């Protein structure tokens, strides 16, 4: 009778463990999907960000002289890095989603979880660097720098700056999700897949 009770406790603990694991896996997969859409949106919005305007630079008699100028993301190395970092984060999440769906059949002695955790940390670090660089340049474009005599451009290219700000918001959402995903990936390595067997009375 005692043995029977012990078996029921082990079986109950086994079921609870797998239900919790399955729930956590679905949460992690959902976070990756949302992070993918956030970083992909940031990549596309910034990569397609462009505005062209004509400005009056002088007059000859009564005839105004105009110059057409364009603001593009690839004119600023920080924005190019931002696009690369978020594009990499999008690709990373897409690959991780595929691995989560395929399941553990490609695991080799637990190396899959370790590799995923390492790649998550690297991707998060790269996304953080891209966001920081783009945020600095965005602040410079919006406010200028009077000490260095750098003029602001957002008063002239308002739509360009607004779209860039939207890309930054989407990217920061993706970064926060990547941070949560990284913590969950590391926690998987710290929690051994064991069931505490209750001692027989």
TrEMBL record:
GO terms for cellular component: plasma membrane. The keyword Transmembrane helix applies. It is a multi-pass membrane protein. The chain crosses the membrane at residues 26-48, 78-99, 111-130, 166-186. It is found in: Cell membrane. The keyword Cell membrane applies. Residues 22-177 form the Casparian strip membrane protein domain. Its main location: membrane. Belongs to the Casparian strip membrane proteins (CASP) family. This is CASP-like protein. It comes from Medicago truncatula (Barrel medic).
